[in-house]
Design brief:
The chain has a domain of about 100 residues. About 55% of the residues lie in helices and about 20% in strands. Strand 2 and strand 3 form a beta hairpin. The protein starts with 7 loop residues before the first helix and ends in a 7-residue tail after the last strand.
């Protein structure tokens, strides 16, 4: 029996069937590869890179917050040192006689001021309501990161003292 050559329709049909079989095999291989990857539980390179980028953004924000917090803590520590210096000087002045207060020097120093950069203590005594009441301003100035900082406390001094008539 002699076979006749395939017609163009038969050739096209065979090609289509071959492509369908190849397509099914390819899909099956992809599914098998995906199932194998899912079983292994690994991450793709893109997932790892995205995770690293997200971590970098979060850590940068946290680092910025920590730096700012340490800056605020340093400023508050310096403000506390200045306040302690002023309070110490005020206690010395309160223990003085009124006439000695009138002859005070307009600067002061104490051990706490050595902790502040370029610091100086200033005492300013000026007339207030009457001749026997003086306005006393005690202030500390210092430098922090190139900025001039200042803390001052104002109180009043009388010739008769506190609560005396």
């Amino acid at each position: 029996m002699r076979m006749h050559p395939p017609t163009s329709w038969e050739k096209a049909s065979c090609e289509r069937i071959g492509k369908m079989i190849a397509h099914k095999l390819l899909r099956k291989r992809k599914r098998t590869a995906n199932a194998r990857a899912a079983k292994e539980g690994g991450f793709t390179l893109i997932e790892v890179l995205i995770t690293i980028m997200m971590l970098a953004v979060v850590l940068t924000a946290l680092l910025s917050c920590f730096i700012q917090a340490f800056d605020i803590l340093t400023r508050m520590k310096q403000m506390t040192i200045a306040t302690q210096s002023i309070q110490s000087e005020l206690e010395l002045i309160r223990s003085m006689h009124y006439n000695d207060i009138l002859s005070l020097d307009n600067t002061f120093t104490n051990d706490n001021l050595s902790y502040l950069e370029n610091s100086s203590g200033i005492i300013d005594l000026e007339d207030s309501v009457g001749a026997e009441i003086k306005k006393l301003t005690v202030s500390v100035t210092w430098t922090y990161r190139g900025r001039q900082m200042q803390k001052e406390v104002v109180t009043y001094v009388t010739k008769k003292g506190i609560n005396k008539k």
